[in-house]
Specification:
The chain is mostly beta strands. The protein has four helices and 44 strands.
């Protein structure tokens, strides 16, 4: 009878312990990275009242009589399952996906935590927001471009300055429109008719020209005057031609040609009668807009000054092609000297007539900064539009290999800038294809910068962002994994320490020996399942009540035994 009392008491103690664990789970439902606990029970020693017997030839065997003496909590396990992630948008918040833990230090020893709610202290260290444990990682040495191999505090260079770097290379890319060769003006009249309904030519007399092909409608008569007015290369010119019975279309063409070529620096304009009987006016392509025929008007009047309207209509010229200059494309970039002074470099690319080439010319600071060499050259492109070569114009018998200029700021001089237009035969730099020009440039220099902010990526790399736009590594967070993470011992500050059953930590970085990854701007929530906890609470409560009922019943039985004596 006394045995039942002690068994019931052990049941009450066990269920009390289970309620303690459930209460702790519920209390930490909002604790970042918390892992819920679970109580495991085992039966205590069983008393043997009768041993089991083996079967014999004359009878069967019998089971033994063994009575248990209660229950005992064998372990309180941590359920090391992944908690859900909550995005916070705070760039110092980090959540781990996987079994890894952050390595932190309390000033005496390393601890481990799933709590990634970090902040920056006044010394620039990355620390736990609630416990001030210093986050551990591997620092980056910019001189050797390597990470350290020993753990250290993760420091952020909040007072660091990124020194200026002089530009050494300018990368040119984009498209130079293939439809960019210079063209001249090209004009035509409609088909001219004569009195024989045949095709006119240069020898056709003006008085033989007719309004319609049937030979009807005289355009001019002997004694009339033909008036020629034009605007060529922004200059107004005019002349006249007296018509006689022998004045021919060639005479008119010659008069037009002479007056069109009369402005200074204009030459090469031709006026002809083509095989179809049209008057054709052309200016040379290479002259571009400098010889552009902006307007050309032909009119005639008789001896009294009366205008011959049919003449103007028949010899009206239509623009077939307008004049344009060689395509000129400009790209401007900013380069830096060793002191961080910015210099504007403008590249002007001009199409070469008849070739897949562009000349280029550079100017620095709108021409105020002296270019020492390499300021002009050519870009040659292949028949498929890919790059062939970028070359510099020779200076005497020397061919420059870079654009060199004196910055004039006290910085190291000269500045030698290599121009990179891409790879020969490829389309990774400058191209020449039909389409809109789209030039771009980039360079590798920068001015002085101060620390502005930092970012942490999925592998734990801490990248510093400086005010000059430079981004460079600062360090990388360390992660630890254990053979048995459920066996870790909890300590204050939402952290763990290793013990004999957790095994030693494997410390490294994500992706290199550590399978866990990080989610920046997020926190891992606890893995407490309130539905399960409330269910387990009811079961524990009923278990305690039932054990208490056993105690009550055993007490009543003992009372009856005592009353027998009476």
């Amino acid at each position: 009878m006394m045995r039942s009392l002690y068994s019931a008491v052990s049941g009450m103690v066990g269920n009390t312990l289970r309620l303690d664990v459930i209460g702790n789970n519920i209390a930490n439902v909002n604790t970042v990275g918390f892992k819920s606990g679970r109580v495991n029970f085992q039966e205590t020693l069983g008393q043997i009242q009768q041993a089991a017997t083996a079967p014999t030839d004359n009878g069967g065997g019998s089971n033994g009589i063994q009575i248990g003496t209660g229950t005992l909590a064998s372990a309180v396990d941590q359920l090391y399952t992944q908690g859900s992630l909550q995005m916070t948008g705070v760039h110092t918040d980090l959540a781990i996906q996987g079994n890894g833990l952050f390595v932190v230090n309390n000033g005496e020893m390393n601890l481990y935590t799933r709590d990634g709610s970090f902040s920056i202290d006044s010394a620039g260290r990355l620390v736990g927001a609630g416990n001030a444990f210093v986050v551990q990682g591997y620092s980056y040495d910019s001189a050797t471009s390597t990470y350290s191999t020993s753990l250290d505090d993760v420091y952020l260079p909040i007072n660091d300055v990124e020194p200026a770097k002089a530009t050494t290379t300018v990368k040119l890319s984009g498209n130079l429109d293939a439809d960019s060769e210079p063209t001249g003006s090209y004009m035509k009249t409609s088909v001219l008719n004569d009195n024989s309904s045949g095709i006119v030519d240069g020898g056709t007399a003006l008085v033989e020209l007719r309004q319609v092909a049937s030979g009807i409608g005289t355009l001019v008569e002997a004694g009339d005057t033909v008036h020629i007015g034009a605007v060529v290369g922004d200059q107004e010119v005019s002349t006249s031609l007296e018509v006689s019975s022998g004045t021919s279309l060639s005479d008119l063409a010659t008069a037009i040609e002479e007056v069109l070529n009369s402005p200074e620096s204009v030459s090469g304009i031709t006026v002809t009668i083509d095989a179809d009987g049209r008057m054709v006016v052309e200016s040379p392509d290479q002259m571009g807009t400098s010889a552009e025929i902006e307007s050309l008007n032909l009119s005639a009047s008789d001896s009294t000054g009366q205008i011959r309207g049919t003449f103007s209509a028949a010899l009206a010229l239509s623009d077939i092609e307008l004049a344009r200059d060689a395509g000129s494309f400009v790209e401007e970039t900013t380069v830096y000297d060793a002191l961080g002074f910015a210099h504007s470099v403008k590249f002007t690319f001009t199409r070469v007539e008849g070739l897949n080439e562009f000349t280029w010319e550079a100017s620095v600071d709108n021409g105020e900064t002296e270019i020492l060499q390499g300021g002009t050259g050519r870009i040659a492109l292949q028949a498929d539009g890919s790059l062939d070569a970028l070359v510099y114009d020779a200076i005497g018998d020397q061919v420059p290999t870079s654009l060199s200029f004196n910055p004039g700021t006290g910085a190291e001089s000269p500045i030698d800038v290599q121009l990179d237009a891409g790879t020969r035969g490829l389309f990774d730099g400058l191209t020449m294809l039909r389409g809109t020009q789209s030039l771009e440039s980039s360079q590798d220099g920068y001015a002085k910068g101060t620390f502005a902010r930092f970012d942490i990526d999925e592998s734990g790399r801490v990248m510093g962002v400086f005010s000059n736009g430079m981004v460079r590594p600062i360090g990388q967070l360390a992660l630890a994994e254990f053979t048995n993470p459920s066996g870790l011992s909890r300590v204050s500050g939402n952290a763990y320490i290793e013990n004999a059953n957790s095994g030693p930590p494997t410390i490294g970085i994500s992706g290199e020996g550590i399978a866990s990854t990080l989610t920046p701007g997020a926190l891992e929530q606890s893995n407490v399942d309130l539905t399960r906890e409330f269910t387990d609470m009811i079961v524990a409560q009923r278990g305690f009540q039932s054990s208490a009922r056993v105690v009550t019943t055993a007490d009543e039985v003992l009372s009856e035994l005592i009353n027998i004596k009476r």
